[in-house]
Structures are given as structure tokens and as C-alpha cells.
Amino acid sequence: MARSSRKQALLDAALGQFAQHGYEGTSVGTLADEVGVSKAAVSYHFPAKDDLAAELAEPLLDALDAVVPGENANPSWPEGVQHLIERYLDVLLTYPDVATWLEGDRAVRLNAPIGRRLTHINHRMRRAMIGRPLDPRARVAAAVALGALWRPVRNVPLEDVSRNRDLMIESALAPLRVVR
């Protein structure tokens, strides 16, 4: 197996194992066995399991980072916020396996670099959706709105999610209408 295809095979195996068993429940040995390489070969491509997790999460996080505006941005209501929600959902649908893994694995969300970055992105998203600093009621509305995007990607077959994209967008907008 060529180096680049071996690296991709390790990433694919890691994503499958992380999604099924969680970050902490997946060992480097399990990944090596699944791909048919030694632990040393895994370490050659990824010196630490954290490096594997980071490389898997990075495309999704980079794409969300590019979509979500800066701290003080206030998209117009409701058109700008709806467009922001649509773009955010498009990112989740572009990387559904990674989104499912991140949403479902508490350990990886607590992983310092990945968790901190996702938390920061989602804080900016909540702030942009609400259009002002988050009081407790607005924080709940924004959390419900984000949940309306993440949960179906994790819990519903992708083809059903894609077919019902409009429902997800309306479900995300509904709690925001209450507090805007």
C-alpha cells in the first residue's frame, strides 16, 4: 500500500472506530490491525492519536470557521441569519461522518484543541444568530437552534436529512424568532 493511501486508510479506519467506539475506546493497535499495518506504521503517519483526531476534525472545523462570522458580526434578521444557518448546515452535510463523530463523542469535544475550537466556533454562531450578547433565554434559544442542525445529521439517515433540509432550517429559526 502506498504511503498516501495508507494514511487515508488509517484516517478512514479511525473515523469508523471513533464513531463506533469513541475516541477513548479506540486504540492505535485496533487501527493498525484494521488497516493491516504495524503500530509503528500508524505512528509514522500520526505520532499521536490526537494527531489523527485533529486531521479528521480539521476540514469540518475549517469550513465552519469560514462560514461563521466574527465575534461582533450581526447578520440581518431574518434573511442574513437564515443564510448563515443554511451555510452552517451545508458544512455539516458536507462532512456528515465527522459531524456525527464530533456530536456523539464527549471525549473528543473535551479534547483541548478540537473542543476549544468547536466551542469557539459555536459561541460565535450562537452570538450571530441572536444578534446581541447572550442572556440566559437567548442562550437556550441559540442552543436549541444549533441542536436542530447537529442532531438530525447524527440521528437520521443522510438522505432523509438532505430531503428535509428546509424543515431543519425552519426548526433552527423557530427558537430564534422567540427571542429576536
Structure description:
The protein has eleven helices and no strands. With 180 residues, the protein is mainly alpha-helical. It folds into two domains: 1-47, Arc Repressor Mutant, subunit A (Orthogonal Bundle); 53-179. The mean pLDDT is 94. This is Transcriptional regulator, TetR family. GO terms for molecular function: DNA-binding transcription factor activity; transcription cis-regulatory region binding. Keywords: DNA-binding, Transcription, Transcription regulation. Residues 27-46 bind DNA.
The helix content is: over 70%
Number of helical stretches of at least 4 residues: 11
**SSE order, one letter for each helix or strand:** HHHHHHHHHHH
| Uncertain segments | none
Distance between the termini: 55 Å
State which percent range the strand residues make up. Answer: under 5%
Query: What about the largest sheet?
Result: none
Number of strands: 0
Overall outline: elongated
C-alpha Rg, in Å? 18 Å
The average pLDDT is 94
Total domain count: 2
Q: Structural class of the helix and strand makeup?
A: mainly alpha
Protein name: Transcriptional regulator, TetR family
GO molecular function, one term: DNA-binding transcription factor activity
Organism: Euzebya pacifica
InterPro entries: DNA-bd_HTH_TetR-type_CS (IPR023772), Homeodomain-like_sf (IPR009057), HTH-type_TetR-like_transc_reg (IPR050109), HTH_TetR (IPR001647)
